[in-house]
Structures are given as C-alpha cells and as structure tokens.
Amino acid sequence: DLIVHVRDITHPETVLQKATVLTVLKNLNLPSHLLDSMVEVHNKVDLIERYKPTEENALAISALHGHGLEKLREEIEKKILVATGKKILTVNINLEGPQLSWLYKEATVQNIEVMAEDGTARVKVIISNSAFGKYRTLFPN
C-alpha cells in the first residue's frame, strides 16, 4: 500500500543511492500511484547541524534519538488510510449489545475506553467505508 524510502542522509553517495532505488522501483513496473505517494525519509539528521531537507515532502528523522518519528508515523498512517480507503473513527457503544464483537470482526479496534458507570464504551477503530455503512445500518443508535 505504501513505499517508505529511508535514506542515510550523511552518506556521501546519498543522492546516487536515491537515484538507484528509484530506477529499481520503476523497473519493477509498480503502479504509478505507489511511486507518487512514496514517503521520503532522511535519517541520521542528528549528525548534520541544523539539517533541513532540500527535497519537497522529505521527512527528517533521527532514528537513534527519536527525532521526527511521531511526524513520520502520522504521515504513514495518513497515506495508508488514503491508499486503503479506510478511516479512523471513535464510536460510542453499549457494552451489553453486540457492537463490540461486530467491530472486532469487521474493523481494527485500536482502543477501548470503558465508562463502567453507564455500561458504555468509546471504541477507536480503523474501518472501511463499506463496513462503517453496515455498522450504521445494523446499529443505528
């Protein structure tokens, strides 16, 4: 669904390495949308003082120090959701009903926040549009 190209930006041949990777990917006859949505990541930016990417949409990270990893995670999540036609939603459910079981079968449950006082929960899920449509039909409230 997504290509993430991580480069050692401190390597003396980093530009040549990028060109080589792109040539190999193009020779694999991958769908153009996959190449167009590729995430370019510049790693080891902690070794270059005040590093700023010169390439459009490149993300600067330091895997060693964790710099930029949250932004990278967000970018990957956003592009994966677009590529797969899914979305992240939080739905309120009654714990006595079948909703939670249904969500586990038809979606990816990420988090559950139980409100024991009223027997409900807030459930964060990754779900396709079609599955969400079915959910709304089955559980209109």
What report would you give on this structure?
The chain is of the alpha/beta class. The chain has helices spanning 14-27, 32-36, 69-84, 99-106, 129-138, and strands at residues 4-8, 39-43, 59-60, 86-94, 108-115, 120-128. It folds into two domains: 4-83, no CATH class; 85-138, 2-Layer Sandwich (Alpha-Beta Plaits). Strands 1-2-3 form a three-stranded parallel sheet, with helices on both faces. The chain has a three-stranded antiparallel sheet with strand order 4-6-5. The model has no long low-confidence stretch (mean pLDDT 95).
Output the keywords.
141 residues, alpha/beta, Alpha-Beta Plaits, 2 domains, three-stranded parallel beta sheet, three-stranded antiparallel beta sheet, 5 helices, 38% helix, elongated, GTPase_HflX, GTPB6 protein, HflX_C, ribosome binding, P-loop_NTPase
> How would you classify the helix and strand content by structural class?
alpha/beta
Total individual domains: 2
The radius of gyration computed from the alpha-carbon positions, rounded to a whole number of angstroms, is 21 Å
Query: What is the straight-line distance between the termini?
Result: 33 Å
Note the main sheet.
Answer: 3 strands, parallel
Mean pLDDT: 95
Broad shape: elongated
Helix/strand order, N-terminal first: EHHEEHEHEEH
Number of strands: 6
How much β-strand is present in the residues? 25-35%
Q: Quickly count the helices.
A: 5
Summarize the amount of helix as a percent range. Answer: 25-40%
Low confidence ranges? none
Strand order of the largest sheet: 1-2-3
